[in-house]
Design a protein that fits this description.
Blueprint: H1 5-21, H2 34-57, H3 61-67, H4 70-97, H5 99-121, H6 125-128, H7 132-161, H8 164-170, H9 176-190, H10 192-198, H11 201-207, H12 221-245, H13 259-287, H14 294-312, H15 321-358, H16 362-365
Helix pairs in contact: 1-13, 1-14, 1-15, 2-12, 2-13, 4-5, 4-9, 4-10, 4-12, 5-7, 5-9, 5-10, 5-14, 7-14, 7-15, 14-15
Length: about 375
């Protein structure tokens, strides 16, 4: 397979953009309880969009799933369910910390755990240290973590500087202590998404083998539908429980509310969120063996765009020059990390070409 590292990095960055802005349509939902619009978001983003995509681009998806071994399906589903637990509290994290700070901390933890743990468990981590491409890639991950620390430091500085009324003006329910606790749980649990996506290699191989075959670009779609099904299960059960407990199940048929608009905007949030996972899986096919770093690039990009969005939303208004400097430094470091990660993938492509060129042909062997 021909790899196109720069195209892959660009797709990761676009996925990060989607991850940063997916929450915005919720602001247009009116007179619905959180659990009601979150249910529609989950239904569209975790079931409807991935399955519609699967029917369009992966004609053998059902055959692939039927032929899959139970262990692979189990772990993809379980990791998706773990992500679901983190995803449920993602909105709460933003509620308490705001878009800029909340996503910086949550995505930061999600990026570090989701990037480094899979290659360790797969026994591939040591091999990364022996190749220039692996060293460059891991350096990009380390630098991204530094950027995350700087952005988080800016958030803590903001917390100490602004009076309570200014914090509430930008983020109505700002609560740093509650928010940081939620962010730690949400970030770590959400990293399981990458574990699930990286656990489906046998499904991807089957997708390009079983007739009618799925193209190499879309071979990750069968993995995606299983992982997201796990996530939907948790989100659906939780929202239904809240609908019953809070007596809000009538929201879905309450025509005294802007019901069509609510369905549209909640569903739009789900579709935007799902697009980041689609970008991720397609980008993986362009990157090749270093695809594990895509999670870090995706999360770093989400932090970058969410911080910029937070600035436009006024979440950093009134802070000192020192805090603004920390934020700017963090964003600059994150951009640098993405560039270095891209350079690592470029080196990997050159290493592969040199290896293929050095390998003897069949005629030479004879």
């Amino acid at each position: 397979m021909d790899n196109f590292p720069l195209a892959g990095i660009l797709l990761y960055v676009l996925g990060g953009l989607a991850g940063a802005v997916f929450y915005l349509p919720f602001g247009r939902v009116r007179k619905w309880a959180w659990e009601s619009y979150w249910m529609i978001y989950a239904l569209v983003g975790l079931i409807v969009v991935p399955w519609v995509l699967a029917w369009v681009v992966s004609p053998n998806v059902l055959k692939v799933l039927q032929a899959a071994d139970g262990r692979t399906l189990f772990w993809c589903y379980v990791f998706g369910a773990m992500w679901g637990l983190g995803g449920l509290t993602w909105g709460l994290m933003i509620r308490y910390l705001g878009v800029g700070l909340g996503l910086a901390i949550g995505c930061g933890l999600c990026a570090s755990a989701g990037t480094l743990i899979p290659p360790v468990f797969q026994g591939k981590f040591a091999a990364l240290l022996t190749a220039p491409s692996g060293v460059a890639t891991l350096s990009g991950v380390a630098i991204s973590l530094l950027g995350i620390v700087l952005v988080g430091g800016a958030g803590m500085s903001k917390e100490s500087e602004l009076p309570e009324e200014k914090k509430k003006a930008a983020v109505a329910e700002f609560d740093f202590k509650k928010g940081i606790a939620v962010a730690i749980f949400s970030g770590l649990m959400s990293s399981a998404m990458n574990f699930g996506l990286q656990s489906g290699e046998t499904l991807q191989a089957a997708a390009t083998r079983i007739q009618p075959v799925t193209s190499d670009t879309w071979k990750g779609v069968p993995v995606l539908v299983v992982v997201l099904l796990g996530g939907f299960t948790i989100n659906c059960l939780w929202c239904l429980m809240l609908n019953v407990r809070n007596r809000t199940a009538g929201d879905y048929t309450n025509f005294s509310t802007p019901i069509l608009g609510n369905l549209f905007f909640a569903g739009l949030a789900g579709a935007i969120w799902c697009s980041q996972m689609i970008f991720l899986k397609v980008a993986d096919t362009k990157i090749g063996p270093l695809a594990f770093v895509g999670w870090s690039v995706l999360m770093s990009s989400a932090i970058l765009f969410s911080a910029i969005l937070g600035i436009f939303l006024g979440e950093w208004k009134g802070v000192s020059g020192r805090t603004k400097g920390l934020l700017a430094a963090g964003l600059a470091v994150l951009v640098t990390a993405v560039i270095i990660a891209g350079y690592g993938n470029k080196l990997k492509g050159e290493e592969d070409r040199q290896l293929n060129h050095a390998a003897p042909t069949a005629a030479q062997k004879v």
